[in-house]
Each structure stands twice: as C-alpha cells, then as structure tokens.
Specification:
Jelly Rolls, ten-stranded mixed sheet, seven-stranded antiparallel sheet, single chain, 331 residues
Length: 331
C-alpha cells in the first residue's frame, strides 16, 4: 500500500511539474498576442513579428537574431559582420568603442553597458566622422547590437530606460541609403546650456544618398520627463504615408510623407523634385550607446558613474536598459 502511495505521489508530482512548464510555455507564446500599447484592442490588425521582436527572457542572447559588435577573439575585439564579412564595421563613436563584452541579461532585461575601461585594447584608428570631431578611441567602451533580419513598415515598440550619464542611448536603424533614428537620448545634461537634453526626444530620418547622412526630417521635442529616470514605452507606426510617434501609448508626434518633403525643401539645399520621405526601404534595427562629445562626456570613472549606485561606482559601469523590442506588421 505504501508503495502504491509513493508511486502515486511521484506520478502526480511529475504531472504537476509538466503542467507548470506547460503554463510557462503558454505564457511565453502569449507574447505573440500582445499588441501595441497605443492599440490594445488591435484595431490596426497588427501581427507580431517573432523573427524581429525580442522579449529578452532567455538566458543568452540569440545571435541568430542579433549581431553583437566587437566580440572577442584571441584577447581582442574583432569587427566582422556574420552576414556580410567584407563590410566595414563601425567601431563606435570615438572616444567610446563598441565591445562585445558590454552587456548582460538580468530578469528579462537586456542591459547594455558603458564601462570606464582605460586598459581596453582600443583601436588606434582615428577617422574623421561625418558629424563631430576626429577623436581617438580611449577610456570608455559601450555596446552595440544589430538586428540581422530586415523588415519594411510596421509598428515598432521598445520599453527602455536610458543610461543616466553623459552618454547617448540609441535605438535606430539602417537601410539602403537610409538611416531612421527612433531616438538618440542623451542621459544627463550637465554642461551649461545642455541641461534640457535629458528630457529631449530627438528622432530623425537621414538621407545617405543625397544629403550625406543629414536629416531629411528631424524633431527635437521635450518629453516632460528624464529618459534615464524610469522605463517608458516608445512606439513608432511607420508606413509609406508617414510616421506616428507614441510615448506610453499616447500620440506624441506625427509627420506625413508630404510634410517631411516640405521640411527638407525648407531646410536643405535640394532640388524642387526632391522626395524628403526617404524611409521607404527595409531596415535593420540597432541598439547602442555613443558619446556625443559636443554635448559633454565623462572624463573619469567618477564622472561616468556620478548618478550610479555604489556597486556601479565601484565597477565603473552604467546601463542602458531594454525590457523588450517588438515589431508588428500588417498582412
């Protein structure tokens, strides 16, 4: 009798564990039924793109989904795109350099790290960037993830918290002749005249074919809060007619294709037939951190971690935190 009781107990314990795991699996799969924060009833008939989206609920980064820039080989970072080995890979905006070690996953959050790391094997390359000064790589390393699959049009959403330092948290994309910056968010405006930047949303469409990377449309608007103080949800509805920008589910800004063209004709030396709405090609998403030296930058470990926790101050690390990146598309 005791034997049968023991067997029954083991049997039901196994069944219970299987049910728990099944529930967990269903919970993960239910992410495909999550809709844009601005459209909870899915009136837009959005379909979750599971190949592009990432909930960051795994123990390791899916490198079939993301190219982690600057992974280490033989004690040094190497810069070779797995899908295009001959392509020149950007190492980051100097003085910071992308390092493939600067990230971690914690409790479903991707944390991209900016580190005070003067002993890092920095590249000795000094290039004149399209924007800003030619500076050497030194002292600070950051992170960069590039989505390996491209897509065209849809609803893009990220829940994130910017790094709380004089460093820019970036969520942007590249396509053929096109750069689409969803935000370049400066974490902490400290210099005189730069105090407003940590509340500013800066987003742009950039034309790399005819304007050498200058925006064919751009906006800088006050969000009413510091991007580094807490998590917020940034959503971008993008199609051939224009762009709608949402913050925490509420419409924040919008531009039509015609308005983008009108802006370009007013602000750029372009021909009368120029089409300023260049966001019409497939894009690959980017997550990164950069130093915009013209806005101010950390000159020491203490400056980098000024707003950090005691542990961050000790380690010399500050984080750009991403809860998820989601993309929906229509049929």
């Amino acid at each position: 009798m005791f034997f049968f009781k023991k067997v029954s107990l083991v049997f039901f314990s196994v069944i219970f564990i299987l049910l728990i795991n099944a529930c967990k699996t269903r919970k993960v799969n239910q992410t495909t039924k999550v809709y844009p924060t601005s459209d909870p009833e899915n009136k837009g008939a959005w379909l979750y793109n599971s190949e592009i989206s990432d909930e960051f609920n795994t123990k390791e980064i899916d490198e079939e989904r993301w190219y982690i820039v600057g992974k280490f080989k033989d004690g040094k970072p190497f810069y070779k795109h797995p899908d295009n080995p001959k392509k020149r890979i950007w190492k980051g905006r100097a003085p910071s350099q992308f390092s493939g070690r600067n990230y971690r996953l914690e409790n479903g959050i991707l944390k991209l790290e900016a580190r005070w790391e003067p002993d890092f094997p920095f590249s000795d390359e000094i290039r004149k960037p399209v924007f800003g000064e030619a500076l050497p790589y030194e002292n600070i390393t950051t992170a960069c993830f590039i989505q390996r699959k491209a897509f065209k049009y849809g609803y893009i959403e990220i829940r994130s918290k910017a790094i709380d330092a004089e460093i820019t948290s970036g969520f942007w994309s590249m396509g053929e002749g096109l750069e689409f910056d969803f935000f370049e968010m400066f974490g902490d405006g400290r210099k005189k005249g730069k105090e407003h930047l940590d509340k500013q949303l800066w987003w742009s469409i950039r034309d790399w074919k005819k304007l050498k990377g200058k925006p064919s449309y751009t906006e800088r608007k006050d969000m009413g809060f510091r991007g580094a103080s807490d998590f917020h949800i940034y959503g971008i509805e993008w199609d051939e007619k224009g762009i709608k920008y949402f913050i925490d589910g509420k419409l924040f800004s919008s531009v039509t294709a015609e308005q983008a063209t009108a802006w370009a004709k007013k602000n750029r030396p372009v021909k009368e037939d120029y089409n300023g709405y260049v966001a019409t090609n497939p894009i690959n998403l980017w997550l990164d951190m950069e130093i915009f030296s013209w806005n101010g930058m950390p000159e020491s470990k203490d400056e980098l971690t000024l707003n950090g926790t005691p542990e961050q101050k000790k380690k010399g690390i500050m984080d750009f935190e991403i809860d998820y990146v989601r993309v929906w598309q229509n049929k």
